[in-house]
Protein: Tryptophanase
Organism: Halosimplex aquaticum
Amino acid sequence: MRSYATRMATPADLPDREERAAALEAAGYNLFDLDADRVFVDLLTDSGTGTMSDAQWAALHRGDESYAGSSSFRRLREAVDDVMGFDRVVPAHQGRGAENVLYGTLVAEGDRVLNNTHFDTTRAHVAANGGEAVDCPVPAARDPDADDPFKGNFDVEAGRARVEEVGAENVPVVVLTITNNSAAGQPVSVANTREVAAFADDIDATFVIDACRFAENAHFVAEREAEFADASAAEVAREQLGYADALVMSAKKDGLSNVGGFVAVDDGLDDLLERVKQRTILYEGFPTYGGLAGRDLEAMAVGLREAVEDDYLAHRVEQVATLGAELAAAGLPIYEPIGGHAVYVDAGAALDHISTAAFPGQALACELYLEGGVRTVELGSFAFPETKRPEYVRLAVPRRTYHREHFEHVGETATAVVERADELAGFEIVDEPPMRELRHFSADLRPLDA
Ligand SMILES: *Cc1c(COP(=O)(O)O)cnc(C)c1O
């Protein structure tokens, strides 16, 4: 059993109710616009918000800040090789930097990119290169109650049907996102990974794994896939990632770091590696630092090794499950099974008197802040205006950061909100940015009268 002792104390104070109400109003009822020190428990995202270990802090001090060929880069490359099985690594400042570099070399005007579900930055990079992002989730992914161990899987039949329609020559890339972030953080099986690899091979496409949460995924595989019942997460991770031609990674997730990312390319794909390096020079930095300081590379190298420790992963997944149990006990409908990094609440069901047009997810998210200083994020029709999605509110758990008392506070907050759910009213947008896809980051809203 693993727990973490905390030796750096960050005070968090709950502002009183009037202060919370004033902060919310000043933020235009958009939780991205809150000052973080007005937040008591911050579950906005698990990206870059975790706590580094003492070993990571120690490694930081040997950061080699050489412009080219630093020993810190070498240590990162060794870690990626040991943990993920790839020794051709090109760092980037974070995941979307790696996506820009990789998809910019692989995707051209008119191409289709197939993915179990595109994460929002992935979708944006496909579109920015003139491509069309096609999601192929298994049907169970859309059912918040379906009892399926691998609801993150790629629907290969749907993928093949799409290729029939558009022609294999127009599908240069197939992506598998593990865990499937946009499908409630659900895992992908190794069996499915093999099928997707074979499918990509059949159509001569480059098979990319978006590995942001590869370690959490490996933990679920070891728990749920019979073939891996005796395997460690580290063994599963190497097996699963080994099918990919290339990896794209955000170290802000399972790199246990506050910043960073990389592209990794399989042996033999020399041309792809060369193009990735050239594009990295253009957008990120020299290919041995990719927009990061040497010390960031050190933190990533240590974090990656820690991320596949079974004791760490058991602790991590247990924390998310604890939060899920608190929310379910409070009477909120949650997506099950609970995924690896977050709990998703179906606000459309919890606040069924608020219409989609009045953003029930945003109403719930604002009320959780008003009631208990808890920050979450709406991922329903406010964040994704054109796509029909359930009205989810996501509560993401930063790694190695919060304790049981925080999850209990969230549970008490949720209970109080559920008790007066009938009184809650929806919202309308008063001001939004020109790019609709990005509106939830900066739009201002106004509460409607109850
Ligand atoms: C976070 C994330 C990204 C982008 O990474 P950033 O570090 O936030 O730029 C890409 N894909 C997935 C699945 C992610 O979760």
Notes: The two ends are 48 Å apart (CA to CA). The longest helix spans residues 310-329. The mean pLDDT is 96.
